UniProtKB/TrEMBL annotation:
Gene3D superfamilies reported in the protein's UniProt record: Potassium Channel Kv1.1, Chain A
Lineage: Eukaryota, Fungi, Dikarya, Ascomycota, Pezizomycotina
Protein name: BTB domain-containing protein
Transmembrane segments: none
CDD domains in alphabetical order: BTB_POZ_ZBTB_KLHL-like (cd18186)
Bias-annotated ranges (Low complexity): 14-36
Family matches, as PROSITE patterns: BTB
Taxonomy, superkingdom: Eukaryota
Pfam families in the cross-refs: BTB (PF00651)
C-alpha cells in the first residue's frame, strides 16, 4: 500500500522559499533581521563614547563666533570727565584693548584697574570719548556733517580738536592723522578758511609737538599773503582781530614769520587746503604716510599756486 504524500505546513513552505534560513514561525524574516542588525549597530556604534553625538551636535567652540571673537565677553567701566559732566561708558574690554593699546596696559597690566575693571579719565571730554568709541566699534570716524551749519563752525572745530587731543593722549597716531586730513578735506569742500577764533583755538588746544597745529599758521600765511584783499575778506579777517590772536599766541606769530621768510618774495602764499595732507600729519617726515602707506611727508607748494 502506498503511503500518502507528507503535507507541508505553510510556515515551512514560507521558510523553504527563503532558502531554509528559518525553521520556526517565531523567527524574523531577512528584512526584519536587517532592520534589527542596523538598529543594533546604531546602538553599539562609537556614538556610545560621544563621537557620533559630537558630529551631530558640534561643540560651541567649533562654531565660528565672529562677534565674540571681536568683542570678547568682559565689560569694563570707564568714567570720563568730572563733576556733573562725568559720563559712564561700559565697553567690551577686548575690542577696546585691540584698538587702543593704551587701555591694554591698564586693564591687562596687573594694576588695580585690571582687577576692578574700572578706570576714571577726569581730564578728558565725554563727547570726544563718545566719538572715539564710535571709531573703536565701527572703524569709522563720525562724519562732521554738522560742520557746515550756520553758527556751529567754531563749536565743530573745538570738538574736532578735543578728539585730536584725546587721540594724542592715547598714542593713536593713525587716528590723529585721519582727523587732520578729514578736517582739511571738509574745509576744502565747503571752501572755508578758519577765522580768528579758530586760529586761536588751534594754538590754545594743541601742543607744540602736534603737527596739525601748523595748519593754523599756514592759513594765517595764506590769508595775509595769498588771498586777494577784498573788502569782504578784510571784514572776515580784520587786522585788529588777527593782531590780538598773534599777540595771545606768540608761537603762532613765530611760525607765521618763519613761513614768510621761507617763501619767495612777490609770490602768493600757498593755499593750505591744497597742500599734501602729510604736511599736517604726525608721522615722521621720512616715513610713509600712516593713511596711504605711500610717499614722504612733503610740502607741495607748487600745487597750491594758482
Amino acid at each position: 500500500m502506498s503511503s500518502s504524500p507528507t503535507r507541508r505546513s505553510p510556515a515551512r513552505i514560507a521558510s523553504n522559499s527563503n532558502n531554509g534560513a528559518s525553521t520556526s514561525n517565531n523567527t524574523p524574516s531577512n528584512s526584519q533581521s536587517a532592520t534589527s542588525i542596523s538598529n543594533k549597530r546604531a546602538l553599539e556604534s562609537p556614538g556610545d563614547d560621544g563621537t557620533a553625538a559630537k558630529k551631530a551636535c558640534p561643540d560651541d567652540r567649533a562654531i565660528a563666533l565672529p562677534f565674540l571673537d571681536m568683542m570678547g565677553t568682559e565689560i569694563v567701566e570707564i568714567n570720563v570727565g568730572k563733576g556733573p559732566n562725568q559720563r559712564l561708558f561700559r565697553v567690551y574690554q577686548k575690542r577696546l584693548c585691540d584698538k587702543v593699546p593704551y587701555f591694554q596696559k591698564i586693564f591687562e597690566g596687573g594694576w588695580k584697574e585690571s582687577i576692578e575693571k574700572k578706570v576714571t579719565l577726569e581730564d578728558d571730554d565725554p563727547a570726544s570719548f563718545d566719538r572715539l568709541l564710535l571709531w573703536v566699534y565701527t572703524g569709522v570716524i563720525p562724519k562732521i556733517e554738522w560742520f557746515d551749519k550756520s553758527g556751529e563752525k567754531l563749536a565743530a572745530t573745538r570738538a574736532i580738536l578735543n578728539l585730536y587731543v584725546l587721540a594724542d593722549k592715547l598714542s593713536l597716531v593713525w587716528l590723529m592723522d585721519k582727523i587732520a586730513s578729514e578736517y582739511i578735506d571738509l574745509q576744502a569742500e565747503l571752501r572755508f578758511l578758519p577765522g580768528s577764533p579758530h586760529l586761536d583755538l588751534f594754538y590754545t588746544k594743541l601742543s607744540d609737538h602736534m603737527a596739525f597745529r601748523k595748519y593754523a599758521a599756514y592759513c594765517l600765511h595764506y590769508i595775509l599773503h595769498g588771498l586777494e584783499q577784498t573788502e569782504r575778506n578784510l571784514q572776515i579777517w580784520p587786522a585788529t582781530e588777527l593782531n590780538q590772536v598773534m599777540a595771545d599766541n606768540p608761537t603762532l606769530t613765530l611760525e607765521y614769520l618763519e613761513l614768510v621768510q621761507k617763501h619767495p618774495h612777490q609770490e602768493r602764499a600757498p593755499e593750505p587746503r591744497t597742500l599734501s595732507r602729510c604736511t599736517f600729519h604726525q608721522h615722521i617726515a621720512d616715513e610713509p604716510c600712516t593713511l596711504t602707506g605711500e610717499g614722504d611727508k612733503e610740502v607741495h607748494e607748487e600745487a597750491a599756486e594758482k
